[in-house]
Amino acid sequence: MATLSPFQTMFAGTHQLAIDDKGRLAIPSRFRAQLDERCQSQLVITMGPNPCIEIYPAPEFQRIAQDIQNMEDRRQADLLKQVFIGFAVETEVDKQGRVLLPPMLRKRARLNGSAVLMGQYTRFDVWAEEVWNDRFGEGPGSALASLGDAFLTLKR
Asked: Hey, what CATH topology would domain 11-138 get?
């Protein structure tokens, strides 16, 4: 049996994409087979703490939702349910490999036209290109600059 590379077992990498006039985003072809195998292309789209849209395979979303339900801190659990679950929309990848991004979530994430899809191991984040550039571009205020020595703490 062939050994799968890490990129075949998780969602990783960054892709510049376009959102069409109907609010659809084409999932890169390298992820489509994974999505079909993992979740029969059934996805859940929601918001998280960042100004982007989060896209989860349905089983992963269900796992996280159950973890939220089981939290002991009810106030925190209620807030997470209101945001993470309350804004969730079930969808699927269409025959052309696209997903429809809900208008309310597109507006919150300032998504229209150019977007960046970022693999986040078990999910995708979809950022407006301008917001992504501000966050991850070069410069002293970027997320990359603020990481500092964080990479050094990882076991290598």
From this structure: Chemotaxis protein chec (3.40.1550)
Q: Where are the domains of the chain?
A: 11-138
How many C-beta atoms surround the C-beta of residue 76 within 10 A? 11
What pTM did the predictor assign? 0.85
Q: Tell me if 132 sits within 8 A of 26, measured CB to CB.
A: no
Tell me the residue ranges of DSSP E strands in 27-101.
42-47, 53-57, 89-92, 98-100
Nearest to 116 by CA among 51, 61, 65: 51
Q: Using one digit for the tens of pLDDT, what is the confidence trace for 19-61?
A: 999 999 999 988 898 898 889 889 999 998 999 999 999 999 9
Handedness of CA 51, 99, 10, 15 (dihedral sign): negative
